Give the backbone structure.
Amino acid sequence: SQTIHQWPATLVQPVGSPLSLECTVEGTSNPNLYWYRQAAGRGLQLLFYSVGIGQISSEVPQNLSASRPQDRQFILSSKKLLLSDSGFYLCASAINNQPQHFGDGTRLSIL
Amino acid sequence: QKEVEQNSGPLSVPEGAIASLNCTYSDRVSQSFFWYRQYSGKSPELIMSIYSNGDKEDGRFTAQLNKASQYVSLLIRDSQPSDSATYLCAVPPGAGSYQLTFGKGTKLSVIP
């Protein structure tokens, strides 16, 4: 079965600083990968998904970007963080139309 | 555009009772459904998948699917305080789509 690794678990960043969150997947190949954000007390918001290396689809226009440099690596980045970027960031992986499985998430606080 | 609706709750049940969580969806062609459990501060965890009309049981959990009425439910028998969490209903991607549509979740509290 697949395992999704995310780090760091928590992160505190000042407004205007850059961001890089990494997600790696073990135990499978060619997964579909997803980045979600969950604001406090809110539902899951899909940010990006990828069906293969270098293929990124953006769901919400904002100051975040994603990249997939390797089959099982998915990176979420920002050049300048905003206060509104605070939240719980989740990486998920799925094979074809099978259910998604989530990593443990990164809790990001912007000061 | 698929829509998945859930009562946000909170739903409070006493320990040992049956908790009933409901979800309705808008896409008539959806063929399968997933239930995730999310503890406070944690990531969602898949607990049930259901692919055909009727009931599917797994331990204390039963998923019920009614495609004609476009709803899916999750029953938790003998509810325990450890079942207190937010339960998310999700509809998987159809042909040509890779996006899993999540409901906003129902918060369940099991009172000891």
